[in-house]
Structures are given as C-alpha cells and as structure tokens.
Amino acid sequence: MYAIFEDGSHQFRVSAGDRIAVDRREGEPGDELVFSNVLLIGGDGAPAIGTPVVDGARVVATIVNQYRDKKIIIQKFRRRKNMRRRNAHRQPHTRIQIVRVDGSA
To answer: Could you tell me which residues come within 8 angstroms of residue 99 by beta carbon, excluding any fewer than 6 positions away?
Structure first.
C-alpha cells in the first residue's frame, strides 16, 4: 500500500518503512507526525483518488533526526560597478520514517 501526500507544496510518494526528508518540522527524534493532506492511496485494487484529498486518509510518521543541508553559496556580481556580494545558506530539514498509511484503497 502506498500514498501520495502533500506537505509544504511538495508531493511525496511513500509506503510503510520509507525514509524521506521534508522541510523542517518542530519536534524531537521519536515524536510522531501525522500528514492528513493525502491526495491518493493505492494498493492491490484501484487507487482512491481524492478531490482534492482522500477523506479520512492519513500518513503517520516518526521523526528520525533534524539536520541542515549542504551549504550553498550565493554570489552576486555586477561588472564595472564595484559590487560583489557573497552569502551562504543551509536549509533545515527533518528526516522522517513512515510508520503506516491509514485509509481505504
């Protein structure tokens, strides 16, 4: 059984046991997260497609760890204007493990 859910304008296709990285969520490792914005649930039979979400469906996950992604460098340069800017950014992420997919398929 698998599900496609939406979180923070990203869509993820998951099944039980998968580990994925989502945008930063508050919580400690071991805490439970519930995603109720399930767009599709599939399995053995025909998939249940939501309009826009599947009623009563949810994806339950636990937090594995919190981390920050690799540093990216942002450089701005304008020729002949004596303008050079250098900045950096590290995006925070939360690694989660899918425990179960609840709903009807």
So the answer is: 16, 32, 60, 61, 62
Longest C-alpha distance within the chain, in Å?
64
What is the H or E stretch that residue 15 is in?
A: strand 10-15
- Three-state SS letters, 34-61: EECCEEEEECCCCCEECCCCCCCCEEEE
Number of Cβ within 10 Å of residue 52's Cβ equals 8
User: What is the pTM for the complete model shown?
Assistant: 0.83
Confidence of residue 43 (pLDDT cuts 50, 70, 90): confident
Tokens coding 91: 């995006």
Q: H or E stretch including 11?
A: strand 10-15
96 contact partners, CB below 8 Å, separation of at least 6: 19, 20, 21, 22, 25, 33, 61, 62, 63, 64
Of 86, 96, 74, which Cα lies nearest the Cα of 26? 96
